[in-house]
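Blackboard transcription, Thursday session:
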Amino acid sequence: MFSDVFVKIKTQRFKLVLFMLSLCITTELSAHHVLGRPAYSLNEDSNTPPSMQIETQIGEYYLTYMVFPAFPKPGESGRLNVYASRIDNGDTYDGDMTFSVRNDEWLKDDNREIIGTQQVYDGVYRQGFIFKENGSYIVTAEFQSGGEPYVIDFPLEIGQSSSMGPVGIALGTIVFGLISANLFQRKRLMREKIRSARED
Amino acid sequence: MTHPGLPDLWGIIVYCFMLLLSLWVLYKQSSMGDETKSPIKFICLSNINSLKPLIRYLNKSVWPLLTLKLIVLMFFLLVIYAGLNGTPIPQKNIATVLTWNIWWAGLIVSIFFLGSSWCAVCPWDTLANWFVKPRLWFKYKINNSLELTPPKWMRSVWPALLMFVGLTWLELGVGVTTSPYWTALLSLLIVVLATLTLAIFKNKAFCHYVCPVGRTVGFYSQLAPTELRPIDDDVCAKCTTMECYNGTDAIDACPTQLVMGKLTQNTYCTSCGNCVKSCPGDNISWRLRPQSYEAINSARPRWDEAWFMLSLLALTSFHGVTMMEFWEGWISEFAQRIGDSGQLLSSFSFGLIVSMVVPIGLYSLVVLVTQKISKKKLHFKKIFTGMVFVTLPLAFSYHLAHNLNHMIRESVGASQLFYNPLGLGENPPPLSDSLLKEYNMIISQDALFIVQALLMMFGFWIAIKVLRYRAYKLTLNTAVSISPILIFIIAVNGFNLWMLSQPMIMRIGMCITPIVTVN
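(Written on the board underneath:)
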């Protein structure tokens, strides 16, 4: 589809786009991912599925966390990749990294479970996963460096989350507020009636 | 993805304009007294024969406003539904695009022409009203409100200022703008706040004291060319019933308790039109006035409002700073020094505080210098509140120029989202999408640069007009006495212009938030 779009564009325009791309190339790298915030990306040069990616910073390290596919479903196998490099010199961390997962939903047991300890391969820690149920989970990556323990939590959404929670809470709060105000109002009116009756 | 900044040529033109105008004002300030004698022209729209039937219909009928309210409400509910149920990819979900790229950016543009009209159709207020005071028919209505008087600490714009800082923190620190889900939650939260405030306090305390959007719109409306005012001041002077303030059986009183006969500023007017409908003498109407007349002449200085205006300037510039490429590096380095991790919210919060302290401190300093060099014994607070209006056009012009960048560059193809507002089954957009958007902008890039440069000149020009009149009112009539504030204006506008000339990071590009802890 991407190539179809470009075929339709006149050569001159195409050249301009390429020119702009070449101008932007240095800023693209620094601007595309903002620290600490996940981004969704599609690798247009290959057939890999869309991925969700978070770059973050902890202590001496920059960490990049990627989830394939970007929107994993229950029963579907997925993979997460973690890259850890030192902020000062860019050296890759090469010790072991342990991954665990827990529930991130209200009123649910967190059911923490270690899903694996991985070694670095080609600068990347790879951890596969399959979840049985929809839900919001927290993936924790743990490692030791310079005698310091590093614990990093990342969000992972499996399937579609329910939208009724926030709407229910909002409507519940409004209804509770209105009923309370109404009851208070009735009491106030009743008190006024009694007072005026006494005065009469 | 970054947007290119204003070319050097335009920057130089604006800087030259600022320099020439500054020299002119230093030369002309002593003759300000003669200029204030010329009468101000207002055009009452209901006095224009060709517009009379339309204005009369708009003033008297409830349907135009109700229809607009329903349309806006429909979009608002769509934002909530799409945000909660749609794709988390911000560019493919109508919740984020409609809220942050179109509404939030377009709102500021609308003030330039229509003042506080947005407040009249605001969906937060519409929903809150319908929840608390549902009308069964025209005259009879249920009232679930306790109608309490707001406590004294609340009767100022301090709550709105706190909310505004909080909104900025959520927007730029937490990244609400990049998450459809959090955008929907924020929308719901404000509906809850507006409803509960209306259920507890009398009139519209939320709009008046708490709403950060309403107060921002209100202050910027001092620069708008439209206002709701009496047609004949004498009619109001003789009025004893004051239906605009007290309401009638059928029409509610002014929600922010304004008396039309004494109204001098738009700050708290929500453009609801209740005064127009309730006035027995049909004496209230829309009228046109010289742009920024209110900020220059008629708005009255108040301590809390001065702080809001200064914060508005600080936070507007802060928006720009966070979209600069150097910002990320600074925050990262600072985070390392203090041991911050994850989304670096502590570091961001520190940056936010610094960004507010610097311009406010700078302004206080120039006020102090003005006080020292002026021959009259003027109180610090009097100069502080009297001259603060210069910040409004500076903030507004940069806000407009900055938002135009987002609106014109990032809203391309937004109409396509209506075919699939939830973005179901959509993939993240490839990099080429952003490049094609740049190429298919609504107006050409050169035209955008011209408009941005003109806006920066406009802001500076209005700030100079405000400076001249307000300084004259404070009896600061010499070139020396106005120099400190003039330097402040040049510094702020110069800095904002410099930011406009830098590459700017796109508003939408990422999503959700990671949670990070260090043991």
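Lecturer's comment: The two ends of chain B are 35 Å apart (CA to CA).
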